[in-house]
Fold each of these.
Amino acid sequence: MKQSAVIIEDDSPAESMMEMIRRLYPICRSITGAGLRQTLNIIGEQLTLDLTEVASGTQVFDWTIPPEWNLRRATLKAPDGSMLADTDVHNLHVVNYSLPIKARMTLAELQPHLHSSPEMPNAIPYRTSYYAPAWGFCLADSVRRGLAEGEYEVEIDSTLAPGALTYADYVLPGKCDEEFLISAHCCHPSLANDNLAGIAVAVELAKWLNKRRRKYTYRFIFAPGTIGSITWLSRNRDCANRVKHGLVLTCLGDPGAMTYKRSRRGDAQIDRVVEQTFAQSQRPMRINDFIPYGYDERQYCSPGFNLPVGVIMRTPNGQYPEYHTSADNLDLVRPEYLLDSLNAIKQIIQTIELNTKYINTHPHCEPQLGRRGLYSTTGGTTKPPGYEMALLWVLNYSDGQHDLLDIATRSKIPLETIAAAADVLVEKCLLRVADRH
Ligand code: ZN
C-alpha cells in the first residue's frame, strides 16, 4: 500500500526536535543528579546555557533542596531467578529517589514496595518519592498479578548524598528589559511527551528567537519540576519582577488538540493573545481556566508572585492514558505534532511582539488626516478603504487603555494591518507609545 508521508528534511525543526527527544529519552533523570546534568549538557550543545547549582540543604521558601540522588542500577528478581524489573531495561522500573537496598524478602514483604497501574495493565507506571525516604519498584500490573510466593531478590544501587540541584537559564536580550519567560521541566526519566516534547520545542523556539529582532528579553528556564522553579524564584526575584509574559511548555508532542491553561490572573496579555491567536487559526483548541494543580505555573502563579504565566500543551497532564507510564514513549510523540506546537507558539510570540499600547496625541476631535496625506481627499464614498479604517480605529482607541490587540479584536481588522496603521501614525506624530507602567 502506498503511504502518504509527511516529508521532513533532516535539518528541519521537526526532525531536530525528534532527535533531541530520542537522545534524552534513555537518560535516568530526576530532580537532582547526573541524569539532570547530562540532560542540561545536551541542551547546552545547542544553546549557551547559564547553569546554576544550588547545594542540598539550601532553604528555598518553604522547601529544602533534597540530597542528590544518583542511580547505578535497580533490579528485582523473582524466586525462579528471572528478572522482573531492571532499570537497564527501563528507568521507570524504580521509584525515583529510592533509597539503596540489597535484600531478600517474601512476596508479602515486597508488596508494599510495588507499584502498578490497573488502568494501564501492560505499562510501567512512573512513581517518585523525593521528600519521604522510601524505596520501590514499578511493574506492569499484568506482571504483578502473576507473582508467585517465594523469596525475591531486591537490589537498588543508588546514593542519596549531599550534592546540588541544577537548573539552567538561557537569556536572549531584547530592546527592553521586560521579560518573556519560557519554562520547561526536565526531571522526568524516559517519558517522551511529558516533558521531553516541551524541552525540544523550547530549544527550537530559542534557536528561532535567536535569529529575530526582539522587543522583549526572552528567558528560558530548564529546571526540575516544582523544586526547580521554587529554587529559581527564590534566587531571581528581580527577574520575576520583570516578567511581562510567560508560558510553561509541556506535553507538546501528542496527537491531541492544543490546550491553553490561563494564568491565575486570567486576563493577562498572554491570556488574551493566546486566545486570539487560537481563535484566528484553523486548529482546534481548548482554553482552560487556572487551577492550582499542574506544572511550574503553580509556583509562578502563587499569590506572592502572581506572574502572567500560562501553560501551553496539547493533551493536558493526566488526561491521556499514556500519561506518567512507560506508554508515554517515542511512539506517542510525532514530528508533525511537535512542529504544529512550535508553530502555534511562534504565532503567539509574533502577536505579542506586535502588540503595543499607544496614546493619541490629538485626542480632541479627529486630527485632519487628509492634510497629512493619510486619507482620501475625495469625500462622499460609503466607507473608507480598509487601511484608512484601521487608522480611524487606532486613533480612536489609543487612549492608554486599549492595546493594538484590543483594537484588532474590536474592529475585526487583522492585527498586522492595525500595527501598520499605528506605525504610520507614530511617524506622523499622531501617536506615541503609552508609558509601560
Ligand atoms: Zn509529569
Amino acid sequence: MKNIEKEPLTLALPKGRLTEQVKELFEENGMGFSFENRKLVAHDKQGLLKIYLVKNSDLPTYINHGIAGLGVCGDDVLFEAGYPFYKLKTFSFGGTAMCIAGHKGDVLEYTDKELKIASKFTNFTRDYFSKMGIPVEVIKLNGSVELAPVLGLTRYIVDLVETGNTLKANNLEVIEKLADINVHLIANPAYYKIHYKRINEMVDRIKDGGKDE
Ligand code: PRP
C-alpha cells in the first residue's frame, strides 16, 4: 500500500511571470526547483513537492479534481472558477486591480440601456454590477481586451490593471477600480484535511514578507 505521508505534496503553478516569482521565493526558502527542457512536471530539491506547470485558467480545474492539492492563483482566476478552495497564504507579489476602463475622459453613464462591457472576467463583471443593481451586457474576450473600445466593440472593459501602461498606450484610462486582486497559495479542502500538518510546515517555511506575516 502507498504511504501517502511519504509522497511529495502536489502543487500547480500558472505558466508565466508568477511562476518565476514563486521560483525565486522557493529558492530563497530552500525549496528550489526548475522545469527542464520544456517539461511540465518538476520536483523541488528536497523532494517535498511535485510541481505541475499549467495554464492559468486551468489551474482551478486541476485543484478541484485533486490532481494537484495546492496551487498558486490570483483572486481573478479564483472568482471566475467559483470553487470553494482554502486560501492558505497571500503572497507579497502579483497584486493588481480589477478596473472598469474606457476611452480617456469617459465616465460611467447609466441610461435605460445596459452597459456594454468586454472582459475576460465575465463572472466577476456580471456579479459586481448585478450587486450594484446596474444592468450590463458582458461580451467575453480571451485576451487583448483593450482593443474592444478602440475598435468599437464595447464602450467599456473590465480588466486587470497593473502598471496601466497597456491602457495608456491605447488612449484608454481607468474609470473606477472595482477590486484589489491578490495572489494566494490555495488548497483543495479535502487534500488540506489529509495533509494539513505537512502543508502548514511548508507554509511556515515560505517567508516573503507577504500580507499575512
Ligand atoms: C493583462 C491584463 C491587461 C494587462 C495590464 O493582460 O489583461 O491587458 O495585463 O497590465 P498593465 O497595466 O501593466 O499594462 P495579459 O498580459 O495577461 O495579456 P492578455 O491581454 O492577452 O490577456
